[in-house]
Specification:
It contains 20 helices and 13 strands. By secondary structure, it is α/β, with parallel strands linked by helices. It is globular. The structure holds 1-deoxynojirimycin. The site of 1-deoxynojirimycin has 10 residues, from loops.
Length: 525
């Protein structure tokens, strides 16, 4: 018996595939006595994996799809992307969606998070012309999921704005609030009967902040002004869409709707300096709560610290009015409570340091308003440049997620939480034990929170396979499956460890307690 088990473990180490039995499950048999699994995720817990439209679909100009701001930017200014690539073909998911759903299934996941491409559905951005091929494509994809008992989790906007709308001012034009609601209406009518989890926006903070710091499309330099207009209009568009869903679709479609917020825990580079400690804490509130406070707080509206600081700096800068637009009373009410759950994209803790010696009178920028910035080279959103490049409990900092969740659940009334993104970036090698460890530590942390009574109902690993990583192009990979980008077929290959570990957790609903001893015993594999 032991011989058979050892052979199986050994062959797994060699990379042989025994997909029906996970390497961890096999290991568990050998160590049954040390593996009393008392901790279990709830039976109805959602175990998912995600991708997004522009990052994965390709087929950029197929069947009447309109152009997006990312198509234009990557075509006309390839140097804005680290390796000069674009997502014209991407992982080819427009054609390979059945394979993708199969991969989701193979991971033992019961949900798949995707996003819809606004220009594929409404090529000009407006709802007077609905592209039938776009509707067909997403219906096929969603039907394929349902056929395989995979629950769709759909994000309506994941950064690929129709170009025509950008030409009209994009997210800085208040009319976009209604344009977005009109797009959402088309989407609810077309797919709402089959979708139970919706998010309107993906990470509006990064989209608005970097879009107007010249980093992400539309790549304009209006930091400190356009980012706040963008956020303001996104909050209104989100809330109006939420109300539209509640008034016209919720009763028959019975879904839940929220928005994905990128949240991170901030730690001061110098914890012995009280000024630095306060600045890191201030950054947490200023940045994370930009979108949280108007939606989840009792009084609604932007947080006081955000309103006070921007008003104060605006006045020092000689402006008559604050650069942060003000909500009208009825808008505050509209936005308040406009989410059925809190959808968190979490990657890491960020180390920050205070800006020193700058003249606020001369510096209009979002970063100057925040007053702190990331320490260069410190782990950041999905990029782990740790000293030994190893994920351990210290480097991967899963406790950051608990800190965020505890702080927010104490402060706000949050009905339920979904972790909509969590993942580990590396250079794309198949050997990905650090990614496996990252998932292990984070899922363990989530289970701990659930046991403490926090209502977390789902978890989505990011990403299913390697995708186009925005300004990083293909230099930065998070996939559970590697994609061969030199192959026109875009073949997918499972990475060595993370799919096995996730499958084990997703199918047993437990964290394998033998995992770390397995890692230690096999240090040199
Ligand atoms: C968050 C974004 O939502 C997603 O598009 C991106 O791929 C990941 N971060 C990793 O950078």
């Amino acid at each position: 018996m032991n011989f058979i088990i050892l052979t199986l473990i050994f062959s797994t180490i060699r990379g042989d595939d025994h997909s029906s039995i996970s390497f961890l499950a096999r290991k568990l048999v050998t160590n049954r006595s040390e593996n009393v699994k008392v901790d279990k995720f709830p039976d109805d817990f959602i175990f998912g994996v995600g991708t997004s439209a522009y990052q994965s679909e390709g087929a950029w100009n197929v069947s009447n799809k309109g152009e997006s701001i990312w198509d234009k930017m990557t075509h006309e200014q390839p140097s804005t992307v680290a390796d000069g690539t674009n997502a014209d073909v991407a992982a080819n998911s427009y054609y390979l969606y059945k394979t993708d759903v199969d991969l989701v299934k193979q991971l033992g996941a019961n949900s798949y998070r995707i996003s819809l491409s606004w220009p594929r559905i409404l090529p000009t951005g407006f709802d007077n012309y609905v592209n039938e091929d776009g509707i067909r494509y997403y219906n096929d994809l969603i039907d394929e999921m349902l056929k395989k008992n995979i629950t769709p989790f759909v994000t309506i906007f994941h950064w690929d704005l129709p170009l025509d709308l950008e030409d009209l001012g994009g997210w800085t034009n208040p009319s976009i609030v209604d344009w977005f609601v009109d797009y959402a209406r088309v989407v609810f009518n077309a797919f709402g009967a089959k979708v139970k989890y919706w998010t309107t926006f993906n990470e509006p903070m990064f989209y608005c902040m970097y879009g107007y710091q010249g980093i992400l499309a539309p790549r304009k330099n209006w930091s400190g002004i356009a980012d706040y207009l963008c956020g303001h209009n996104a909050l209104l568009a989100h809330a109006k869409t939420y109300r539209l869903y509640s008034d016209h679709f919720r009763k028959t479609q019975k879904g839940k709707i929220s928005l994905n917020l990128a949240l991170f825990w901030t730690v001061p580079e110098n914890p012995n300096d009280q000024e630095e400690v306060d600045a890191a804490d201030y950054m947490f509130e200023f940045r994370n709560e930009w979108f949280l406070h108007p939606i989840y707080s009792k009084d609604g509206d932007y947080s006081k610290i955000m309103k006070d600081r921007i008003a104060n700096y605006s006045s020092i800068q000689g402006l008559f009015r604050s650069r942060l637009p003000a909500f009208k009373r009825h808008e505050i009410e509209l936005i308040k409570n406009s989410a059925d759950f809190l959808s968190i994209n979490y990657y890491s803790v960020v180390t920050v340091r205070k800006f020193k010696n700058f003249d606020i009178k001369e510096t209009i920028s979002y970063d100057a308003d925040v007053g702190t910035r990331h320490t260069p080279g410190a782990p950041n959103n999905a990029s782990f440049e740790t000293e030994n490049n190893e994920c351990d409990v210290k480097n991967c900092q899963p406790w950051g997620l608990s800190k965020i969740i505890k702080r927010l659940t104490q402060k706000y009334s949050i009905p339920m939480i979904m972790i909509a993104e969590n993942g580990y970036a590396d250079e794309g090698q198949l050997e990905d034990m650090d990614r496996a460890k990252y998932f292990y530590y984070h899922l363990k942390e989530i289970l701990k929170l659930i046991k403490e009574g926090i209502n977390i109902q789902g978890y989505y690993a990011w990403t299913l396979f390697d995708v186009f990583e925005w300004d990083k192009g293909h230099t930065f990979k998070l996939g559970l499956y590697s994609v061969n980008y030199t192959d026109p077929e875009r073949a997918r290959t499972p990475r060595k460890w993370s799919p096995k570990l996730l499958k084990d957790i997703y199918t047993t609903k437990t964290i394998p307690s033998s995992f770390l001893s397995f890692v230690n015993e096999n240090k040199n594999i």
